[in-house]
Amino acid sequence: MFLFNNVTFTTTVVSIIPCIFWTKSLASQPHILLLLVDDLGWSDVGYHGSQIKTPNVDRLAREGVILENYYVQQYCTPTRGSLMTGRYPIHTGLQHRAILSLTPFGLPLEFSILPEKLKEVGYKTHLVGKWHLGHYTSVSTPTHRGFDSFFGFYNYGHDHFNHTHDGFLDLFEGEKVARGYKGQYTSHLYVQEVERIVEEHNSSKPLFLYMAFENVHDPIQAPEKYLNKYSFIKDRDRRTYAAMMDVVDEAIGNITQAFREKGLWNDTLVIFSSDNGGDPFYRGFNYPLRGYKKTLWEGGVKACGFVHGQMLKRKGVISRDLIHVTDWYPTLVNLAGATLDSNPMPVDGFDVWETISSGTPSPRTELLHNIDFPEKRPGLLLTYDTWYSGAAIRVGDMKLLMHVPNATWYQVPEEGGIAPDMEEIWDQKTNIVELALYNITADPTERYDVSHKYPNIVRHLKDRIHEHWKTAVPPGIVPDDIMALAVAIKNKAWVSWRDTCNAK
C-alpha cells in the first residue's frame, strides 16, 4: 500500500509490474479525463497518510504513476492558465493574484489553449466546474475558448448550495445563467453533468473532459451525511473539509464508473492534480511541507498528482522526476497528435510522457516557480488579498527563494495541530524572507537555509531568475471595473459585462 511517512518522507517504491504496452487495439488518440481538485492539501489524501478517506483516489494512484516531485502554481488562476497554455504565469500576465469578479482581465486571447488544440484533431471537449480565467467579455468564456460545453462557474469560489458569489448567481450552462439549482450541492450537480456527457458521447470520437472541482475550496460546506463520517475530528471546519474531500472521492468513483459503463475506460488517460497547496485557515493542510496556498514554499506549490491509464508502460510506481503543470499542455497535445503553437512565445512546458510512462529521466531540470515582486500601480491598494509571492526557482536539487512572505509548518488538527487565524497568516505575510536556499531533495520540508554555504549556487540561481524576468510580461492585475457590478445587479448573476454595456 502507498502510505507515506509524513515525517521522514521515506517511501518504498513498489516493484514495477510487467510492462503493458499501449497496443494498436487501443485508440490511437486517448480519451483524456483531467481531474483538478481546488485547494487540496498535500497531506489530505489517503495515499499520503491522511485520515480522510479517499479510496477511489488511492486506488487510481496505486494502479498508475504517482508524481511525488510535481509542482503547480501558488494560486488558482496562475495554475489554470499554465495548465491551459503550457506557459509560466510571467508569460501570460497571470503571475499575481486570482482574477476576481470585478476584474476586467482574463487569459490572453492570443494564446491557443489546450481544448482548442485538441479540437483541431477531432476531440469533443467539455469543461465541468471552475473556469476562473476571465469572463469580462463573452469571447473569454469557456465555450469561446475551445470547449464544446461548459457547466460551472466563472469566479474563484461560490456557495456550494446556493451557487452565489458575493450575492449574485455564478452558475452557467454555456453562457446561459443556470437558474433553478438552489439547494443542490454543486459537486453532485457536476457528477450528473459528467454522467450525461459520457452517456451521450459518440464513442468513435476522442473525448477530453476537464473536471475542475470546486471542492475543497471555501466556503467550507458539505452535506450532513458526509460530516457524520468524520465525527472523530473535533475541529468543526476541519471535519467539514474532510467531508468535502470525501465528496470529491465519491464523485471520482462515480465518474470513472460512467467511463467504464460507456466502454471508454481502457482507452482513457486520467490525470489527477491539485491547483495549489491547501490553505490551513480553511483547514487544508500540507504537513510536513512548509507553507500553504499563496506562497512559494513547498506547501504552496508542491501538489498531489498522479497519472492512470492502460497506455502507461509502467504502473504501480512512484516517480520522483521533476514535473510542472506547464508540462501537461505539450504532453497532451503531442499524445493527441496535434501541433504545438509557439505564438506569441514558446511553450515553457516539456513533453513528459516518456518520463511518466516509461521512467526515462525528465527533460525538465529547472523550474521557475514564479516571479511576482511588489509594485506600485495606479488604482491598486495593498490589502490582504494583494499577496505578492516574491520569486523562487529550482535547478536540480537546489531551490532559491527571494523576497517571499514567511511561512511555517501546520500539522493537521486530528493529529494535534492547531489551525492559524487570519492575524497569524497576516503576520507571516508581512514578515519577508529576503533570500533563502534549500536542498529540496535532502531537505524537502525547507528547514535548513544553506545560502551562506553555497554563495556560488545563490549567485547562479539569482542570475537565472533575472534571465527569466527579462522575458516577463506585465502582471494582468488591474483596478476593478464598476460596470461588472452594475451588470451583475441587473442580471442578478455574474455574466460577462463588457459586451453587455458596450464598454471599451
UniProtKB/TrEMBL annotation:
Keywords, alphabetical: Calcium, Glycoprotein, Hydrolase, Metal-binding
Family the UniProt entry places it in: Belongs to the sulfatase family.
Gene3D superfamilies cross-referenced by the UniProt entry: 3.30.1120.10, Alkaline Phosphatase, subunit A (3.40.720.10)
Superkingdom of this protein's organism: Eukaryota
Descriptive protein name: Sulfatase N-terminal domain-containing protein
UniProt signal peptide: none
Species the sequence originates in: Pocillopora damicornis (Cauliflower coral)
Necessary cofactors: Ca(2+)
Residues covered by the Sulfatase N-terminal domain: 30-338
UniProt key word Glycoprotein: yes
GO molecular function annotation: metal ion binding; sulfuric ester hydrolase activity
